[in-house]
Backbone:
């Protein structure tokens, strides 16, 4: 195996060397492609195909990347890929000239060319371009993945998105749709009288959401600042200033884990409208989702995974208390005290912390028993005040707030309030958040004196909403993971910052697997558990069913700092769920696509309300007095379900 890999690397290095030699020859002959400044394009591939009857026999000019080439003596075929698709070209020596044809034959897969020629249809009926001129516009010095297998390694796809876009047309389509979705949102809001604004990214007080911020430092001001975790507090200042309808689509940053639904930096839409409430925000968000789906996809009935989602029907509306009663068979209206709430949580097996109050327990029950049921669009309304520090209390029912979250496909897609505009109440809630922060809650807000000063000048009754653009795009493009809708998702640097360049070069050469620089490992301070002295018989050992499993998805378990939830392919055709307490050592997004080892015939074990069906195998040791752990990962060529002996 090692010898085969060495030969493969030698072959790749030789191919790369040949490409550079071709470039040197071009440059020596005065044909440096990198000196070409422009090329006039008047058509794209799809345009030619869709308008063939009109364009047949006419001259067109296209440009794109050579994705395949068949050289056959005096005539050849090549396939050119541009933004909109691909088209075949017939390149003949007698049509472009003998010297030009020799130059064409030396071109490589991946080269970018300009193509002029006549539109025609081959004998087999394929719409093509009969080339009259082929110009090399850029020389590709790297090797694209093999055509029929494409780029399938998800880790490299995310790290080298440029190659992913070249090789996978559906990926390109996803990001074209993303751009259209954002454009459509802007058009809808602009058409409804909203004004787009921009607010600071670096802020002295990161508020407006329950999240841990990233910290940085202004050298010029000698002041510590944070990257914003929401857009809310500055937009509300603008409502105070008299801008009655404002919105911002911008990046926000939360210093949290990575999984299939979360990325530390993401795109958020927040909007605020004076003189309306959360009912107005419900109507707006429902109409916005429906409008964007219709404009971008041409339908309001969409498919996500294997589920049909109907955005055309009125979205269901339930209070949080009603939802918990419906799905958990618990009438929280009967719970009068914090003690009763915690006793109920104990009975239901819901984990909570000592600092949690009655409203927190209701929210935990909702997360445990309700969220997984909310597949079709559903508004969950009237959240407890304990988890809604910026929302207005419901008149006559001050334990609850005028707040809603929109859920689709079990995911929160929007969060909205009747915004709190009472500065005295707001100060009290900020101070309650300060107490939580003092108790160790890293996601609690701090008192924002300038925002309170703004509220004291008077803010009109206002409705506000936040919509995660990335999750909306996931829904409308049927994407399973947030990284599939982010052009450049957050990834851990390979081999650390010092060796990232070397690792990147290794990826470019192979473009099929991660290559990490070999490192010398010091085991001198490592301790391992003594070997068991007690023997077991072979029959007992053989009853444990060890299998190779593929990680299809991995995410942090809510309210747990240790547990990761794995969705695994064990070769049976049915997804297997296993929970493992290894979050301290791994970020969930880094494990997707890996091949691991699990015991699959253990009885289900309930953990945080989730049945864990098996156990992933890790290697543990002690290194210089600290516990170390490595999840056992094996060659990805081992199929799911392969049994270990």
Residues:
């Amino acid at each position: 195996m090692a010898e085969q890999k060495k030969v493969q690397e030698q072959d790749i290095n030789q191919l790369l060397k040949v490409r550079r030699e071709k470039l040197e020859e071009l440059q020596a002959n005065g044909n440096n492609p990198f000196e070409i400044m422009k090329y006039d394009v008047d058509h794209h591939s799809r345009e030619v195909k869709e308008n063939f009857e009109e364009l047949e026999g006419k001259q067109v000019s296209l440009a794109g990347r050579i994705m395949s080439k068949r050289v056959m003596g005096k005539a050849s075929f090549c396939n050119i890929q541009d933004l909109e698709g691909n088209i075949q070209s017939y390149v003949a020596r007698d049509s472009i000239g003998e010297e030009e044809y020799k130059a064409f034959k030396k071109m490589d897969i991946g080269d970018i060319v300009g193509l002029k020629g006549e539109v025609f249809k081959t004998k087999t009926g394929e719409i093509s371009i009969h080339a009259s001129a082929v110009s090399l516009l850029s020389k590709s010095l790297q090797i694209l993945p093999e055509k029929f297998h494409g780029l399938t390694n998800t880790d490299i796809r995310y790290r080298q998105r440029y190659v992913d876009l070249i090789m996978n047309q559906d990926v390109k389509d996803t990001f074209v749709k993303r751009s259209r979705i954002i454009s459509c949102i802007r058009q809808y809001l602009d058409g409804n009288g909203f004004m787009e604004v921009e607010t600071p990214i670096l802020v002295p007080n990161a508020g407006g959401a329950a999240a841990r911020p990233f910290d940085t430092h202004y050298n010029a001001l000698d002041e510590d600042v944070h990257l914003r975790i929401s857009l809310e507090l500055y937009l509300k200042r603008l409502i105070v200033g008299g801008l009655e309808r404002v919105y911002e689509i911008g990046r926000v940053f939360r210093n949290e884990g990575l999984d299939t639904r979360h990325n530390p930096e993401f795109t958020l839409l927040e909007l605020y409208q004076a003189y309306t409430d959360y009912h107005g925000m419900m109507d707006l968000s429902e109409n916005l989702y429906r409008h964007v789906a219709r404009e971008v996809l041409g339908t309001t009935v969409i498919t996500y995974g294997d589920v049909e989602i109907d955005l055309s029907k009125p979205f269901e509306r339930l209070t949080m208390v009603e939802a918990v009663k419906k799905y958990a068979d618990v009438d929280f209206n009967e719970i009068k005290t914090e003690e009763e709430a915690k006793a109920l949580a104990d009975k239901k097996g819901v984990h909570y912390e000592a600092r949690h109050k009655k409203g927190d327990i209701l929210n935990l029950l909702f997360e445990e028993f309700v969220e997984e049921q909310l597949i079709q669009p559903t508004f969950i309304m009237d959240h407890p005040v304990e988890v809604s520090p910026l929302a207005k209390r419901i008149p006559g029912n001050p334990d609850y707030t005028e707040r809603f979250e929109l859920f689709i496909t079990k995911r929160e897609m929007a969060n909205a309030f009747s915004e709190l505009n009472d500065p005295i109440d707001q100060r009290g809630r900020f101070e309650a958040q300060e107490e939580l922060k003092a108790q160790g809650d890293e996601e609690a807000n701090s008192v924002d004196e300038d925002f309170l000063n703004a509220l004291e000048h008077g803010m009109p009754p206002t409705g506000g909403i936040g919509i995660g653009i990335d999750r909306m795009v996931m829904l409308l493009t049927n994407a399973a993971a947030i990284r599939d809708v982010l052009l450049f998702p957050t990834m851990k640097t390979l081999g650390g910052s010092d060796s990232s360049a070397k690792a990147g070069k290794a990826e470019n050469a192979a473009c099929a697997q991660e290559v990490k620089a070999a490192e010398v490992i010091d085991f001198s301070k490592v301790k391992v558990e003594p070997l068991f002295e007690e023997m077991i018989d072979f029959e007992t050992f053989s009853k444990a069913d060890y299998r190779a499993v593929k990680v299809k998805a991995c995410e942090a378990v809510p309210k747990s700092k240790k547990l990761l939830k794995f969705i695994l392919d064990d070769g049976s055709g049915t997804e297997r769920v296993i929970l493992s307490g290894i979050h301290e050592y791994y970020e969930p997004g880094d494990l997707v696509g890996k091949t691991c080892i699990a015991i699959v015939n253990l009885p289900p074990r309930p953990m945080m309300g989730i049945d864990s069906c098996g156990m992933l195998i890790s290697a543990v040791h002690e290194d210089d007095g600290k516990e170390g752990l490595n999840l056992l990962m094996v060659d990805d060529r081992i199929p799911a379900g392969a049994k270990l002996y």
Q: What stands out?
A: Residues 572 and 641 are 7 Å apart (CA to CA).
